[in-house]
């Protein structure tokens, strides 16, 4: 597929935010029927549904939601590499949730306080996201400070996903955000939760060594291709059909 | 194999809107009160059914025993004068 | 005050006869309790196992609107399972015990979920036919003699009203869509129709538990009566969909004022029930695996709660009462 260069705001911004929400929602949807306890089936689905709702609004700002979701090639997706990472075990999912929901919380707070095409959406989403962050924080405490096994799994997950956190704070064209302040708030909040969970903030590199970039530049990790293939195949198998 | 630690049972009470009492909605399992609240929010208010939630450990509830049905409640049943319908008021008298 | 066993039994019988509800701490015959636990557990298990065939399509849903609907529906099924396990719990049987019985094959779930979802249209057929049959079964259960079960069913029926409609709407879109979509819809209806009729259970004269359950007002209508009701409802709905029901013997019987329909293949029913359905092994394996792989998570949360009770971890700050922002 041929995708026009992503330049004019708010398209780049809407795609970045919308793709983050869409892709993470899809990943969380993969938990259905596999969650560690029934109550968590309901909780994870709630979060997935909130994110899918956000994605649909954001993508619709700049085009047809289904065309954008189902007919773009991998290189045209602008989501963070963090959100496309496979669910792994529950610790990996919670670490991903903690990193991302904290990011989304401070990002949407800034957007809600500003005056842009995203103000209204952010004002509504910030309440949802606050709950997602609360969910992630509570589970981080329980896994980090639960049993020796859960502590080890949670520490490993936080470490493994750390390298995907750097690109969250690279400016996105069309978003009026104080990225420096965002990063500071994020680091302080995540460090606080991890400390209470008897875990430490990882200190490894926060991005890959590849200079070409990452998700915001349409460069993704290998697990993303199969995920998209699965998500898009039915829609693409019936060109022009309505559902 | 399977978990040996069964999470305790909690009773959930939901205030459906301001001005109404909390009413019993059901129960759920959770490891502690904080998680019980959150599970209750996800389970019992996912269609906007509530504005406030209480969770109470099921083990903390003391219930009247159905065996005591008669001694417990019978005496209340024979005091009809506690109810306004006990009193006859002439027809046409208003605001009573 | 009558405190003898006969007195209790008489009080129970009188309450059931007067259409009053039996509540958890009331005296009840052990067989009534056992029968309820069996039925509620099977119902709860069906909700939980029933998530799988539909969850199979969440990742492939062909539009974002459909994806949201399907996620919400599968989520509801988890919620309904929880309501039902809670109802069973009021009879003194914990969820862990019931799940263990499910995982070891000592308790059953509805056989319908042992059929595979092969195409997207199957999601529609499940909503229309499987949920339709379930609702026909469940609406009378809202008046079941056992209070907690009846209350759970009221909540479930209320929430489920969208399940059937979304399935019907999904099939309608396919039926009115491209020829390939129409064919997909017809194929799904062909495969799901007969298993849906089996959901009402064996014919009345072969049903092991029916008579006693009806006497206790756990059940309100016979299997055959509900099955007939379902067929009569579905025929005009299928016409409106523009899809055929795969039964050459299906026709209106003027005299009875109801539809006649063909013979159900009870041999298939019994085989699937015995564990030889296309997905029996797969469903239970996935369920067992999710439970086993989640054990360390449940243990962690329990350990954390124990530490906090013991005071070795400071209590989380925050209010005890959560005022939702809704």
Automatic annotation (TrEMBL), chain A:
Task: Please identify the protein, giving its name as recorded.
Answer: Phenylacetate-CoA oxygenase subunit PaaI
Which superkingdom is the protein from? Bacteria
What are the GO BP annotations of this UniProt entry?
A: phenylacetate catabolic process
Q: Gene3D superfamilies per the record?
A: 1.20.1260.10
Question: Which cellular component terms (GO) are annotated to the entry?
Answer: cytosol
Q: Do you know which InterPro entries this protein is assigned to?
A: Aromatic_CoA_ox/epox, Ferritin-like, Ferritin-like_SF, PaaA_PaaC, PaaC
List the lineage, top down: Bacteria, Bacillati, Actinomycetota, Actinomycetes, Kitasatosporales
PANTHER family xref list = 1,2-PHENYLACETYL-COA EPOXIDASE, SUBUNIT C, PHENYLACETIC ACID DEGRADATION PROTEIN PAA
Automatic annotation (TrEMBL), chain B:
Top-rank taxon = Bacteria
Q: By its UniProt entry, which Pfam families does this protein fall under? A: PaaB (PF06243)
Q: This chain belongs to which protein, by name? A: Phenylacetate-CoA oxygenase subunit PaaB
Instruction: Name the gene for this chain.
Output: paaB
From TrEMBL, chain C:
Q: Which EC numbers does the record give?
A: 1.14.13.149
Report the superkingdom from the record. Answer: Bacteria
- At the top of the EC hierarchy, this enzyme's class is oxidoreductase
- Keywords in alphabetical order: Oxidoreductase
Q: What is this protein's record name? A: 1,2-phenylacetyl-CoA epoxidase subunit A
| Source organism | Streptomyces scopuliridis
Q: Which gene encodes it?
A: paaA
């Amino acid at each position: 597929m041929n995708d026009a260069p992503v330049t004019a705001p708010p398209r780049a911004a809407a795609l970045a935010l919308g793709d983050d929400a869409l892709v993470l929602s899809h990943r969380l949807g993969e938990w259905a029927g596999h969650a560690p306890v029934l109550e968590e089936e309901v909780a994870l689905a709630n979060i997935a549904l909130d994110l899918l709702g956000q994605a649909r609004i954001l993508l619709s700002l700049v085009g047809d939601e289904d065309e954008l979701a189902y007919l773009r090639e991998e290189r045209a997706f602008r989501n963070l590499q963090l959100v496309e990472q496979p669910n792994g075990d529950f610790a990996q999912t919670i670490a991903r949730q903690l990193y991302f929901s904290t990011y989304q919380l401070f990002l949407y707070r800034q957007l809600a306080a500003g005056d842009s095409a995203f103000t209204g959406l952010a004002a509504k989403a910030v309440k949802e996201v606050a709950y997602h962050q609360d969910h992630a924080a509570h589970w981080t405490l329980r896994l980090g400070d639960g049993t020796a096994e859960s502590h080890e799994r949670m520490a490993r997950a936080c470490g493994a996903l750390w390298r995907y956190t750097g690109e969250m704070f690279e400016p996105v064209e069309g978003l009026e955000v104080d990225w420096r302040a965002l990063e500071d708030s994020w680091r302080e909040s995540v460090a606080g939760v991890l400390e209470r969970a008897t875990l430490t903030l990882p200190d490894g590199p926060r991005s890959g060594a590849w200079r070409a970039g990452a998700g915001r530049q349409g460069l993704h990790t290998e697990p993303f291709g199969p995920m998209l293939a699965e998500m898009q195949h039915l829609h693409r198998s019936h060109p022009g059909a309505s559902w | 194999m399977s978990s040996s630690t069964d999470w305790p049972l909690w009773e959930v009470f939901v205030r459906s809107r301001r001005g109404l009492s909390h009413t019993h909605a059901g129960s759920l399992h959770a490891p502690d009160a904080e998680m019980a609240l959150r599970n209750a929010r996800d389970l019992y208010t996912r269609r906007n059914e509530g504005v406030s939630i209480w969770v109470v450990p099921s083990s903390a509830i003391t219930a009247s025993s159905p065996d005591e049905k008669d001694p417990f409640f019978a005496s209340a049943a024979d005091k009809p004068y506690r109810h306004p319908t006990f009193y006859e008021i002439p027809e046409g008298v208003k605001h009573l | 005050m009558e405190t003898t066993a006969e007195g209790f039994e008489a009080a129970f019988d009188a309450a059931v006869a007067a259409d009053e509800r039996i509540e958890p701490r009331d005296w009840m015959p052990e067989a009534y309790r056992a029968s309820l636990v069996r039925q509620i557990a099977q119902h709860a298990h069906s909700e939980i196992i029933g998530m799988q065939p539909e969850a199979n399509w969440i990742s492939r849903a062909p539009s974002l609107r459909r994806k949201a609907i399907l996620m919400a529906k599968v989520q509801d099924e988890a919620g309904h399972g929880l309501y039902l396990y809670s109802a069973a719990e009021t009879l003194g049987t914990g969820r862990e015990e019931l799940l263990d019985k499910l995982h070891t094959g000592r308790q059953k779930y509805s056989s319908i979920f042992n059929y595979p979802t092969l195409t997207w249209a199957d999601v529609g057929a499940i909503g229309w036919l499987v949920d339709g049959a379930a609702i026909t079964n469940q609406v009378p259960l809202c008046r079941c003699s056992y209070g907690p079960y009846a209350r759970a069913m009221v909540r479930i029926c209320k929430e489920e009203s969208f399940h059937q409609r979304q399935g019907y709407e999904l099939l309608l879109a396919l039926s009115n869509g491209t020829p390939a979509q129409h064919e997909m819809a017809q194929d799904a209806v062909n495969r799901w129709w007969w298993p849906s009729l089996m959901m009402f259970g064996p014919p009345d004269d072969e049903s092991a538990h029916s008579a006693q359950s009806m006497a206790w007002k756990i059940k309100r209508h016979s299997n055959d009566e509900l099955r007939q009701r379902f067929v009569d409802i579905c025929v005009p709905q299928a016409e409106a969909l523009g899809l055929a029901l795969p039964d050459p013997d299906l026709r209106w019987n003027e005299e009875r004022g109801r539809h006649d329909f063909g013979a159900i293949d009870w041999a298939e029913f019994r085989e699937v029930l015995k564990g030889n359905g296309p997905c029996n092994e797969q469903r239970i394996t996935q369920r067992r695996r999710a439970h086993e792989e989640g054990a360390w998570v449940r243990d962690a949360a329990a350990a954390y709660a124990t530490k906090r009770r013991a005071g070795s971890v400071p209590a989380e700050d925050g209010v005890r009462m959560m005022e939702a922002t809704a």
